[in-house]
Amino acid sequence: MLELKSSLKSKEFNVKMKLMNKHNTTRIQQDKTCCFFTYYKWFLWLCLSLYFFTSYLITNDPQDTISKSNVVSHSFSTQNNLGLLKNLKVFIYELPSKYNKDWLLNERCKTHLFASEVAIHTALLKSNVRTFDPSEADFFFVPVYVSCNFSTVNGFPAIGHARALITSAVELVSTEYPFWNRSRGSNHVFVASHDFGACFHTLEDNAVKDGIPRILKNSIVLQTFGVEYKHPCQEVQNVVIPPYVSPEKIWRTLEKAPVNGRRDIWAFFRGKMEVHPKNVSGRFYSKRVRTEIWRKFNGDRRFYLQRHRFTGYQMEIARSVFCLCPLGWAPWSPRLVESVALGCVPVIIADGIRLPFSSAVKWAEISVTVAEKDVGKLDKILERVAATNLTLIQRNLWDPKTRRALLFNSEIQEGDATWQVLLSLSQKLGRSMVSAE
């Protein structure tokens, strides 16, 4: 009996051990399986992450990213968030329509290269910096359009009436409001978006002779004209602004030919180039610079030089590597803005020019400067740039913030040209306009 019981216990023990072994084996296998799936999931996640990251690098080069960001910056409005300008207040005088609105009957008034006077006024009217309480205003904007009187002879703006119109506006403001007399006009802002700015003349010798109207001597003038040396037409508080280029036209051109598209034109210029520099006025246009470019490089296949207007002008810029920006009557040119906006390296040929918004636009990093006396060596200079730092210049040029800073929009966008104007004005105040956040 004892042997039988012992035998039964032994069998029972063996059965238990087998069951335990089986259970342990199953658990170990399950643990291994679980561990395998855990590591497998992590491995799969790592592989997928690497795949998507490398795909992004391959398919999203900087040029493409910037091209896509055009749409974002184009549609982005910051009317409720002007950043550094939250505390700034501008009072806009409501002048009779003869000073501004009446001129808009001609559509060109708000689209030509001098139209920044219209664009700034339009944007300010819709902006949160506008105040209807003049007692809290930092600045007073006087909206007088002086560049919309187009000559019936040549179609260019005729601004012979400008001084009289400005004087009339100041007399009206100073008699109907107390604010001009309180500051002697020192916090009042005007726009002079034509060749020699605050001198209100299109030819330099006449502009220098006439000088700045005495009535504006204490005011602030937003002007396209600016030079680094002493000049009678900038002897006033002033902010250099870019000439007007339609942002809508730029976006349409970029949709057809993005900045990172193929560029089959090496050096481009289209515009007035006189074969004989001394024209009927008896003056040397462009200080003979454009004539020298035509004479020297018209036969060079690398230079695409055209003397006549063309509606597809911006598409030519978008196809070009270098865009020549020589002076005309004045140092500045709309080509500066068009070249930057369309990704063509601006070649600035205008000695001593003071360029707009230098704190926002790093001109030295996105352009090539050539002295007027060296224009005959233009081919060699551009060859050297192409062989050395062209890629870096283009990369800097494709920054959408740079493009935005030079374009005026109908409503202020953070960083755009009107925003830059307001920022420049705020820096003229005795107190900081940076919001306390």
From TrEMBL:
GO terms for biological process, alphabetical: glucuronoxylan biosynthetic process
Keywords: Glycosyltransferase, Golgi apparatus, Membrane, Signal-anchor, Transferase, Transmembrane, Transmembrane helix
InterPro entries: Exostosin, Exostosin_GT47
Principal location class: Golgi
GO molecular function, a single term: glycosyltransferase activity
TM ranges: 42-59
Keyword Cell wall biogenesis/degradation: no
Listed GO CC annotations: Golgi membrane
Membrane topology field: Single-pass type II membrane protein
Subcellular location: Golgi apparatus membrane
Domain Exostosin GT47: 86-384
Pfam families membership: Exostosin_GT47
Similarity remark: Belongs to the glycosyltransferase 47 family.
Protein's recorded name: Glucuronoxylan glucuronosyltransferase irx7
